[in-house]
Amino acid sequence: MIIGVALVFFLVVMSFNSALESIVNENCSHGPTCPMYTTLGTQKVISYSLIGLLILFGAFVTFFLKDKAFPPETKKLLTEEERKHKLQHLDEEEKKVMELLINNQGSMYQSDVMKETQLSKVKITRLLDKLEGKQLLERKRRGMTNIVILK
Q1: CB 100, CB 136: distance < 8 Å
Q2: CB of 102 closer than 8 Å to CB of 78
Q3: In this predicted structure, what is the pLDDT of residue 52?
Q4: Which terminal CB of the chain, N or C, has fewer other CB atoms within 10 Å?
Q5: Which of 104, 115, 103, 113 is nearest to 139 (CA)?
Q6: Residue 129 has what pLDDT?
Q7: Which residue in 112, 121, 117, 116 sits closest to 142, CA to CA?
Q8: Would residue 14 be called left, alpha or beta, if left means φ above 0 and alpha means ψ between -120 and 50 degrees?
Q9: Are 5 and 54 in contact (CB under 8 A)?
Q10: Are the CB atoms for 2 and 57 separated by under 8 Å?
Q11: What phi and psi, each to the nearest 5 degrees, are found at residue 37?
Q12: Gap between the Cα atoms of 124 and 113, Å rounded
């Protein structure tokens, strides 16, 4: 996104520099010795340098920081015995949510849990609150939604 904004700024700066150059050519009566020519050159160097720095910053963020912003969640899969033990003292709806998470490598978006179980948003929130209270899972905010992760 930063690179896209930099490219839009680049087009605006090119347009501005072109208009400024035509104004200087029309109004400067001294020719190339006019101080406005020097100012025009300085303005071009500064504006293109700033656009270049913005593009480099965007490239740096894109290639070097994208993996650090949201590190991948790694979760070991539960053994059959651990799975049975965790599900032993839960009611049917809680078991359904837990099994759904187990079958999806231990994490899902809360909205996907709601779709899969066909339970209301309020019911899912309350179920997840109970399971979180039992320290079986945790919810992490990701933008406008939550990701539900088995502990």
Answers
A1: no
A2: yes
A3: 87
A4: N
A5: 113
A6: 93
A7: 112
A8: alpha
A9: yes
A10: yes
A11: -65, -40
A12: 8
What's the residue count for the chain?
A: 151
Closest CA to 104 of 92, 113, 117, 93: 113
Q: 99 and 61 in contact (C-beta within 8 Å)?
A: no
Amino acid of residue 22: S
Tokens linked to 66: 């994208």
Task: Identify the pLDDT of residue 76.
Answer: 56
- Looking at the whole model, is its pTM more than 0.70? no
- At residue 87's C-alpha, the angle toward residues 109 and 125, to 5°, is 35
Residues 6+ apart with CB under 8 A from 135: 151
Residue 19: C-alpha distances to residues 5, 11, 32, 105 (Å)? 21, 12, 17, 58
DSSP 91: -
The encoded tokens of residue 9 equal: 């700024």
